[in-house]
Description:
The chain is α/β, with parallel strands linked by helices. The protein has five helices and five strands. Helix 1 (14-27) runs parallel beside helix 5 and helix 3 (85-97) packs across helix 5 (134-152). The longest helix is centred in the C-terminal third of the chain and has 19 residues, at 134-152. It is globular and about 50 Å long.
Amino acid sequence: MKIKLICVGKLKENYLKNGISEYQKRLSRFCQFEIIELVDEKTPDKASDSENQAIMAKEAQRIEKRIGQRDFVIALAIEGNQFSSEKFSQLISETAVKGYSNITFIIGGSLGLDSNIKKRANLLMSFGLLTLPHQLMRLVLIEQIYRTFMIAQGSPYHK
């Protein structure tokens, strides 16, 4: 199985880089894991709705180029479905059983995701109503992906 994480924006903080690197190493036992960082558009202060839409559309074009035709796409969006860790593990396992060998997660930029990306997604997923920095969300998501594999193998890591 190959898992790809497409992120808009660069990771800046070393403590987050270290945490992500640790989970990438751990995930290498279970899957091929790749992070793709895309350039984020600069958002002017007090940008209008149409300016924000144009920014998200540009970011969406970059994202779309990195999604495979046969990828199962999970986009992070506040209006998405919420899962317990156990249900998330079950979802990942069932996705593989249904014949998807590539799962792509998408974390948008500071404005969120363009509607075209949300429409392309097989699933919209939310980690709750809290707003988290996109860089921190990357670490949280990668840890949860690792947790899904540990749950699936019955490891005590989840306890």
